[in-house]
Amino acid sequence: MSNVNLRGTGVAIVTPFKKNGNVDYDALKKLVNHLIKGKVEYLVVMGTTGESATLTKEEKQSVMDCVVKETKKRIPLVIGIGGNDTADVVKQIKKADSKNFSAILSVSPYYNKPSQEGIYQHYKQISKASKLPIIVYNVPARTASNIAPETTVRLAKDFKKIIAVKEASGSVEQCMKIIKNKPKDFMVISGDDNLTLPIIASGGEGVISVVAQAFPKDFSDMVRAALKNDLDKARKLHYKIMDITDQLFADGNPGGIKHALSILKITGATVRLPLVEPNEKVKQKLKELMSR
Q1: Which of 216, 192, 218, 217 is nearest to 206 (CA)?
Q2: Annotation says 157 is catalytic
Q3: Is the pLDDT of residue 11 over 60?
Q4: What is the predicted pLDDT for the residue at 128?
Q5: How far apart are CA 225 and CA 206, in angstroms?
Q6: Of 25, 120, 123, 137, which one is the catalytic site residue?
Q7: Taking the model in full, what pTM does it have?
Q8: N or C, fewer C-beta in 10 Å, the chain?
Q9: Of the listed 166, 182, 283, 285, which one is catalytic?
Q10: What 3-state DSSP class applies to 190?
Q11: Where does 141-211 show beta strands of DSSP type E?
Q12: Are 10 and 166 in contact (CB under 8 A)?
């Protein structure tokens, strides 16, 4: 199942909204082409950054259809399907139209705070149900529980369909423990933009990024340089973007990246409640950093 190549830069794309809150499909098409032109390796649809939690089933389907149509098979697509009800996630995976996607990104169950055994059993059921390869998504800041390195390695060894982990634990040490003990073809993908360089230097395979949405060329060039061990070039690009990345998350995601995309005139800045746009201080700082 690991013949899908997700090495390099994936981008968790936003869902652009018009000022009235409706999905802006023209802006979505513009964003897809901006990212393909910027040479990112693949796109992730319906992730956290896509505000999937506040989209209706119909909107989710329309957004996916729009991205599939606009991408025209130029680069691979990954679909986000996750939740805290294992049976419902399994049902969604079985119903999903998998022919246009290369893999599923599935977030660890949030709110319930399962034990490590509970997390393992959750992904075991997903693995049994899915036709597509699975990327485990560990993001403790959102789920209220961390997937321990031992659990990730156990999943990687026990289920061939589980081909990667998107690690957004904020811990390079945790990533290194997984890299040290994982099967050879299992991928560790950074879920923290500013930790991507050290994670790749430790043996990671790339990133699913937010900042690359605004700066696809610089960020994907940085990732490719790091993967080729050209650390001088990678460091220059990493430090060029680092301060902007900090600001993108300073007052919530995807508010920050949507504001950056609005400065670039690619999409609007509107987010859906309970999210709001970043505060004025962050907006001003982003404008200053981006104008440089």
Answers
A1: 192
A2: no
A3: yes
A4: 97
A5: 11
A6: 137
A7: 0.97
A8: C
A9: 166
A10: strand
A11: 162-167, 187-190, 206-209
A12: no
pLDDT one-digit tens code per residue, 82-119: 999 999 999 999 998 889 999 999 999 999 999 999 99
Q: Do the Cβ atoms of 10 and 34 come closer than 8 Å?
A: no
Three-state DSSP at 99 gives: helix
Question: Which range (89-98, 148-157, 198-207) has the least confidence?
Answer: 89-98
Task: Find the length of the chain.
Answer: 292
Q: How far is CA 133 from the centre of its chain?
A: 16
In the chain the domains, ranked by start, together with CATH numbers, are 8-231 (3.20.20.70)
Query: Which residues have CB under 8 Å from 140's CB, separation 6+?
Result: 146, 168, 169, 170
SS3 140: helix
137 is catalytic: yes
pLDDT digits (tens, 9 = 90+) for 31-66: 999 999 999 999 999 999 999 999 999 999 999 999
**105: phi then psi, degrees, rounded to nearest 5:** -100, 120
* 2: pLDDT strictly greater than 70: no
Asked if 167 and 188 count as a contact pair (C-beta separation under 8 A), the reply is yes
How crowded is the C-beta side of 62, counted as CA atoms within 13 Å? 13
